[in-house]
Amino acid sequence: MKSLWSTALAGLVVTGWLLSSNPAQQSVKPALTPPMGWNSWNHFNKQIDDATVRAQADAMVASGMRDAGYVYVNIDDTWEGERDAQGFIRANSKFPDMKALASYVHSKGLKLGIYSSPGPKTCAKYEGSYGHEEQDAHTYAEWGIDYLKYDLCGLREMMKETPSPEAARNIMLDAYTKMHNALLKTGRPMVYSLCQYGNDAVWKWGDSVGGNLWRTTGDISDKYSRMAEIGFSQAGLANYAGPGHWNDPDMLEVGNGGMNAEEYRTHMSLWAILAAPLLAGNDLTKMTPETVSLLTNRNVIAIDQDPAGIQGDRVSAEGPTEVWARPLADGSKAVGLFNRHPQPMEVRVDLRELGFSGPMQVRDVWSGNSLGTIQGEYQTRVPGHGVILLRVSK
Ligand code: GLA
Questions:
Q1: Phi, psi at 104, each rounded to 5°
Q2: Residue 151 a catalytic site member
Q3: Crossing angle, helix 165-186 and helix 133-143, to 10 degrees?
Q4: Which helix (H) or strand (E) covers residue 113, if one does?
Q5: Across all residues in the chain, what is the average pLDDT?
Q6: CA–CA separation, 252 vs 196, rounded Å?
């Protein structure tokens, strides 16, 4: 089944925005490039409130992140309060006025995201949207919400009670479709982020239930081993991503302190090659200059946000070293030479394997420096757990 957003591809293309061919639901398709922004969960976990979100929005502007392309300020789990007598959700006391918060975030040129579950309860056991999908979508639109992360959690209990895996899968797909339709009905464009940890090969059906992005794995943590396990497991998924529908290997840990600069550079480089959403997960009010430069490198962001929206993939692997490449709109390629070993290693790439014959211009993406003209094989020393990220062009 094709989603309304997919149907919209047959609609008008106006100044780079896609409009639905159905006038009743004529709205801009969100996420033509992978969403960029910030999310509260990785750093603040359950300790998130109105003042903290405002401070993050302020810092997103002051640090230059907004100007580098970060736009969504996303509240994750634990904002939810009780429902009123009519069944409408209210925020809990940590968020006294969600509409005012949205206005504040919008006044900074940013957008506000929120979180819920298709089940009766969220992962942190707060109120989910089960049975209240249209009411919740209506409330989000009224508040001025621009992005919804919809996290399976509570629905899993109901899926377990079904007679077969097929029945469980149908419950899940129906639940995701239901909220997609409810969001469409509001007429307010909201990015729709599916979170069900990559089960049932979500990349094959995430688009058909209206997802703009879908988590492809379980939760990331602020450790090189977990980040690498997730990032390097994305090989083979490139065909499922494209403008408006992205694979999501989870939010960034850059700046949270559990990895060194080389490892965070690997995190950013790999996510850029994967056309992954760039949702910072650190405290933006307490960033070192190094963290800011890791998050805002324009050359790296340009790869992530490349307008062709073609996800990269693994080209080769030899022991702990891997070469990944991503085709870009101007005919060049981003090429990542990764070393998963803790000690420095030599990594080799044959540009002919990437489809490049003849002399090529090669640039180091992080430094922006030209490495001159290279033909055929290229070999370089890559730091432990590090990467050399190249842009190769004619
Ligand atoms: C799940 C998700 C996380 C986060 C928490 C919140 O674990 O995968 O990203 O949203 O729930 O409870």
A1: -60, -50
A2: yes
A3: 40
A4: strand 111-116
A5: 93
A6: 18
Pairing of strands 360-364, 345-350: unpaired
pLDDT given for residue 26 in this prediction: 40
CA distance 207 to 229: 25
Q: What is the pLDDT of residue 30?
A: 87
Would you list the DSSP string of 326-367? Answer: EE-TTS-EEEEEEE-SSS-EEEEEEGGGGT--S-EEEEETTT
Residue at token pair 């070469």: 323
Across 167-230, where does the E strand assignment appear? 191-195, 213-215
State the pLDDT at residue 28.
56
Report how far ligand 1's centroid is from the alpha carbon of 355 (Å).
40
Counting ligand 1 atoms within 8 A of each CB, the residue from 219, 252, 253 with the most, and so the one to mutate, is 219
Distance CA 132, CA 323 (A): 47
**Ligand 1 pocket residue status of 124, Cβ below 6 Å:** yes
pTM (predicted TM-score): 0.93
Cα–Cα distance measured from residue 137 to residue 159, given in angstroms and rounded to the nearest whole number: 23
Considering the candidates 58, 200, 219, 364, report the single residue annotated as catalytic: 219
The two tokens of residue 280 are 């910072």
Q: Which residue has the tokens 């239901």?
A: 178
Distance 124 CA to ligand 1 centre (A): 8
Distance 125 CA to ligand 1 centre (A): 11
Say if residue 215's pLDDT is above 70: yes
Instruction: Report whether 249 contacts 276 (CB < 8 A).
Output: yes
Contact 197, 217 (CB under 8 A): yes
Query: Which tokens is 59 given?
Result: 């810092």
> Are the beta carbons of 94 and 49 closer than 8 angstroms?
yes
76 counts as catalytic: no
CA distances from 360 to 30, 274, 322, 349, 376 (A): 35, 23, 21, 13, 9
